[in-house]
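User: I've been trying to design a sequence by hand for this structure and keep getting stuck. Would you show me what you'd pick, starting by listing the structure so we're on the same page?

Assistant: Good idea, let's start from the same input. This is the structure you sent:
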């Protein structure tokens, strides 16, 4: 028999009673937005806290990578392509959108394959695609590079800032003993599989649940986590079986690791994390924009007072930032967490209570 929403809430309250403070971290930007949208925090018992982690791809892209993107996009003869959110991430006194306003050829794309078409239509220009995101989007970039190689497209490259989730989670939770459990990212798990998060119970000794994205699915996953805590069990439970399997999407992973391999990566707020990024294998390195262009190593700084880095570590919430809702809004973002719809600040702002 399937529980109703009311039953889930009743059971959550029952298991939370007398359980002490429990902090459940979610590491998916869509979860963050959904939790705010559905008002889930307002219906949880006071001792249950939802903590946002590094789940927004735009937000975790390091300021150094944003600076590299701006440097490439500001070159003559370059068409720089990226998803819309990346256009507005501030970088000192500029952004990709600012360069567009000044006349540089910066274009929005909705798929990596759009960059391939642009390159074919503009053979006299160097076309660069800004590859960001986790295992969910990295296979699409791998497909772009594989096709460009097969079709011998020589004027296309990728500024590769893709990251992988497990190493970052391990790094973060090993350093934070206040987190009680993990709400695993459903989108990432659909690619890498539920078993990829088995390290949470096996190594970190914390309960975990892979969750979907509507209110019922999130509450059901929270209930399973509380049940494990109540029973003193540590497992990783797949609560999103309609999209997530044990081993994930093997074809997508095979393509991804045919083109890329693990590498260290710099995360905003978390620093350099070993084996948490992806780089092109030697055969494909000519498609690496860092290989093709000489990029100055500028130390870009965050806006004064912006706490995005602390938010990504689960140490602060958006309303603790001096800029939030004042000089920092979705229309005028001071930091990246207000830029993307998956960012904590944008979610807090949009679904203000």
């Amino acid at each position: 028999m399937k529980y109703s929403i009311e039953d889930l809430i009743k059971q959550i309250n029952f298991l939370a009673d007398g359980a002490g403070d429990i902090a459940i971290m979610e590491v998916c930007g869509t979860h963050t937005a959904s939790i705010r949208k559905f008002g889930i925090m307002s219906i949880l018992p006071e001792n249950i806290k939802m903590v946002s982690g590094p789940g927004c791809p735009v937000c975790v892209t390091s300021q150094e990578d944003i600076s590299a993107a701006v440097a490439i996009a500001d070159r003559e003869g370059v068409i720089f392509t990226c998803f819309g959110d990346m256009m507005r991430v501030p970088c000192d006194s500029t952004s990709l959108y600012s360069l567009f306003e000044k006349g540089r050829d910066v274009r929005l794309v909705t798929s990596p394959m759009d960059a391939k078409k642009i390159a074919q239509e503009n053979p006299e220009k160097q076309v660069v695609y800004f590859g960001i995101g986790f295992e969910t989007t990295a296979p699409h970039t791998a497909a772009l590079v594989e096709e460009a190689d097969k079709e011998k497209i020589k004027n296309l490259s990728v500024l590769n800032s893709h990251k992988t989730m497990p190493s970052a989670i391990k790094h973060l939770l090993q350093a934070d003993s206040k987190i009680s459990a993990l709400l695993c990212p459903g989108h990432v798990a659909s690619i890498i599989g539920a078993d990829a998060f088995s390290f949470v119970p096996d190594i970190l000794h914390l309960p975990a649940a892979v969750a979907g994205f509507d209110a019922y699915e999130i509450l059901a996953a929270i209930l399973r986590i509380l049940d494990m805590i109540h029973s003193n069990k540590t497992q990783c439970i797949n609560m999103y079986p309609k999209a997530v399997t044990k081993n994930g999407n093997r074809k997508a992973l095979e393509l991804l690791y045919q083109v890329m391999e693990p590498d260290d990566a710099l995360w905003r707020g978390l620093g350099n994390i070993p084996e948490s990024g992806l780089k092109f294998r030697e055969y494909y390195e000519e498609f690496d924009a860092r290989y093709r262009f000489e990029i100055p190593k500028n130390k870009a700084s965050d806006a004064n007072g912006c706490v995005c880095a602390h938010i990504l570590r689960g140490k602060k919430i958006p309303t603790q930032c001096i800029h939030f809702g004042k000089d920092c809004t979705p229309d005028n973002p001071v930091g990246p967490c207000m830029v993307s719809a998956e960012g904590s600040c944008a979610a807090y702002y949009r679904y203000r209570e």
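That's my pick for every position. To get oriented when you compare it with your attempt: The mean pLDDT is 94. The radius of gyration is 21 Å.
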